[in-house]
Amino acid sequence: MQNTRGLRSQLKDSVPVTGLCPQAGTYGVPDTLRRGFSSVKNELLPSHPLELSEKNFRLNQDKMNFSTLRNIQGLHAPLKLQMEYRAARQIQRLPFLQSSNLALDTLRGSDDTIGFEDVLNDPELSEMMGDPHVMVEYKLGVL
Amino acid sequence: MATASVLQARSAGFSFENCKRNALVEANATDLGLRVPTARKTGTTICGVVYKDGVVLGADTRATEGMIVADKNCSKIHYISPNIYCCGAGTAADTEMTTQIISSNLELHSLSTGRLPRVATANRMLKQMLFRYQGYIGAALVLGGVDCNGPHLYSIYPHGSTDKLPYVTMGSGSLAAMAVFEDRYMPDMEEEDAKRLVRDAIAGGIFNDLGSGSNIDLCVISKGKVDYLRPHDEANKKGVRAGSYKYKCGTTGVLTKAVTPLHTELVEETIQTMDTS
């Protein structure tokens, strides 16, 4: 029985491509009207070496923790936790308002830690807000 | 477009939006005759030593911005917890913010455990944060404190590696300070000897390194007691002017004098009361 999980870690020098066509609209072609002009150079390379690792940091940490939990306590533990995460993630305000995510933070254990995400660039204090109608329509899939 | 703002999730923490623009500006700056602003560094000498009952941390007090002294008396020994202090070298803002964030986290952690925080905990938190940012946070730290297991001293490098040693130095003046330590360090020193040794090590850095200067700050941490001596030694006092350079009245001879009286007449007089309540 092969350990297929191990093969992925052997992928060296893989350029992180954000998506084959990130500007894709409805039919898979670049949607210039809605997303502006696209440039291959901008999409292919991250603007800062840390940009990708920071974007995926929480996800990677969760993955690592779940995999450790699975190895220690069996499959049921991470499954149950992920179910609770999914439930807590659904407790949100309207799309254009910032939610506190209190239940999710408590589950994660980040309610008693402070990091740069609490100090810098707090979304609650951002000067711009999305247009309420547009955001609700997008959430409902009507857009 | 309105839809564009819908699809971009606003995330907290570091924002990399301006990186491409900054790279472009930096590349073209020399053509336009502009100079890219430099970060304020603490080109520094910081050091620490473990003595019989605890830890002595020392630092100089100069902060530089390129070739200019930005702050003649800045404080480089930061508070982490009542029994743990941390000296910071590198980019001044990075050391400040990092130590403050770790101090807050350690306080929350100690409230959660109900115990006095340990130096190893602070060390682990700092190294995990610095490794996460791959050295882009330029903070080289000397962390020292006394906890339930005795006195501990760590040095933490900007990329996240740490060393646990009886005596450490960091900063641009670290070689000068380390020379003093290597010559005169002994295990289990008395407090006065340890203070003198640290003072001499920092003085070595101050007088032999351009990036370090001004005064010497010390922090003596022992079980249940912290002595924050700022300044412990004013090694570089600014000189006092020896004489007065003002000319006496009458030095310049008067050749001619013409007086023209200006006639003014009072047009209007108003009184405005001040609210002195």
SSE string of chain A, helices as H and strands as E: HHHHHHHHH
Number of contiguous helices of chain B: 6
Distance between the termini of chain B: 55 Å
Unreliable sequence segments of chain A: 1-18
Q: Could you give the count of β-strands of chain B?
A: 13
Global shape of chain B:
extended
The portion of residues assigned to helices of chain B is 25-40%
- The mean pLDDT of chain B is 90
Compact overview of the structure:
By secondary structure, chain A is mainly α. Chain A is built from nine helices and no strands.
Question: Can you tell me about this structure?
Answer:
- The complex is a heterodimer of chains A (about 140) and B (about 280).
- With about 140 residues, chain A is mostly helical.
- The termini of chain A are far apart.
- Chain A has helices at about 5-10, 30-35, 40-45, 50-55, 55-75, 75-90, 100-110, 115-120, 130-140.
- Chain A has nine helices and no strands.
- With about 280 residues, chain B is an alpha+beta fold.
- Chain B has helices at about 1-5, 20-30, 90-115, 120-130, 175-185, 190-210, and strands spanning about 40, 45-50, 55-60, 65, 70, 75-80, 85-90, 140-145, 150-155, 160-165, 165-170, 215-220, 225-235.
- Classes of the chains: A mainly alpha (about 140), B alpha+beta (about 280).
- The interface of A and B includes residues 33, 113, 117 and 123 of A.
Features:
heterodimer; A: 143 residues; B: 277 residues; alpha+beta; five-stranded antiparallel sheet; extended
